[in-house]
């Protein structure tokens, strides 16, 4: 069976690392991105150079009309999706709750919670045996913040990832009989550009001494866990979490 992977937010960081590793493992890949076309095209060139059939599709993964268009393009170009990585996410500037606006809270929840739900919905319409599919696998990219709460920094982000964890558990049980597995990874401090969104691009280096392993993680280390969960090697794993926090 042709293995077709959709990765949201795949133009950089963990998403891009996942796309490159998936290309080496024989997947056909859809690189979804929201705004940075140049970065997405660079990742697309890398995965094609590795021999993968791939496309890059601009779409806001938290808007259903755009999600529908995304999956339709995958259907037409690559075939029905068999693997979904819900990686797209956002975060606000470091602050306490009292300084957070309604707009910020809604944006974080829409991107980090509603988006993965919508993408999972449209993936399931293709994967689920109930809908005539051949089964598949979904991995949600959560965060160690879901366990720690991120006080004085971004409790909204932590809460959104806590919701994603609960969604992972519930959906895993809901679709286990339909041939679809749902798991999650929870990265900690990983060397990506994501921390710049919170106002501190050097955050990982500064906090590394407080991590039990003494260093931040690399996106490729997270990608390895994602690809394992998607693979048949994890065939009896659903509703499970892999923490990648260096001991945090």
CATH topology: Rossmann fold
Question: Which sequence of SSEs, written as H and E, runs from N to C?
Answer: EHEHEHEHEHHEHHE
Task: Count every beta strand, where a strand is a DSSP E run of 2 or more residues.
Answer: 7
- Helices and strands: which structural class? alpha/beta
Per DSSP, the total helix count is 8
> Could you tell me the mean pLDDT?
95
Rg to the nearest angstrom? Answer: 17 Å
What's the architecture in CATH terms?
3-Layer(aba) Sandwich
- For the termini, the CA-CA separation is 39 Å
What does the overall shape look like?
A: globular
Poorly predicted parts: none
What can you tell me about this protein's structure?
With 248 residues, the chain is of the alpha/beta class. The protein has one domain: Rossmann fold (3-Layer(aba) Sandwich). Helix content is 43%, strand content 15%. It is built from eight helices and seven strands; from the N terminus they run βαβαβαβαβααβααβ. It has helices at 13-24, 37-49, 64-77, 102-127, 145-148, 155-175, 203-207, 219-230, and strands at residues 4-7, 28-33, 54-58, 83-86, 136-141, 180-187, 241-244. The protein has a seven-stranded parallel beta sheet with strand order 3-2-1-4-5-6-7, with helices on both faces. Strand 1, helix 1 (13-24) and strand 2 form a beta-alpha-beta unit. The chain is globular. 48% of the residues are buried.
């Amino acid at each position: 069976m042709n293995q077709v992977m959709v990765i949201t937010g795949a133009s950089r960081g963990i998403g891009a690392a996942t796309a490159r590793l998936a290309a080496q493992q024989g997947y056909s890949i859809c690189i979804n991105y929201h705004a940075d076309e140049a970065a997405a095209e660079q990742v697309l060139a890398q995965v094609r150079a590795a021999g993968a059939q791939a496309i890059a599709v601009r779409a806001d993964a938290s808007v259903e009309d755009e999600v529908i268009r995304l999956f339709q393009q995958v259907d037409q170009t690559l075939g029905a999706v068999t693997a979904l990585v819900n990686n797209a996410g956002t975060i606000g500037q470091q602050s306490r709750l009292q300084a957070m606006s309604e707009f910020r809270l809604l944006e974080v929840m829409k991107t980090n919670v509603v988006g993965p739900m919508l993408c999972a919905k449209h993936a399931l319409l293709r994967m689920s045996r109930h809908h005539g599919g051949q089964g598949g696998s979904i991995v949600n990219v959560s965060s160690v913040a879901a366990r720690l709460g991120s006080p004085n920094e971004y409790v909204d982000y932590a809460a959104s990832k806590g919701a994603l964890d609960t969604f992972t558990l519930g959906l895993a049980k809901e679709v286990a009989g339909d041939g679809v597995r749902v798991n999650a990874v929870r990265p900690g401090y990983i060397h990506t550009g994501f921390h710049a969104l919170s106002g501190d691009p050097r955050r990982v280096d500064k906090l590394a001494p407080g991590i039990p392993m003494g260093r931040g993680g690399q996106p490729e280390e997270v990608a390895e866990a994602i690809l394992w969960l998607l693979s048949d090697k994890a065939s009896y794993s659903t509703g499970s979490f892999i923490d990648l926090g260096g001991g945090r």
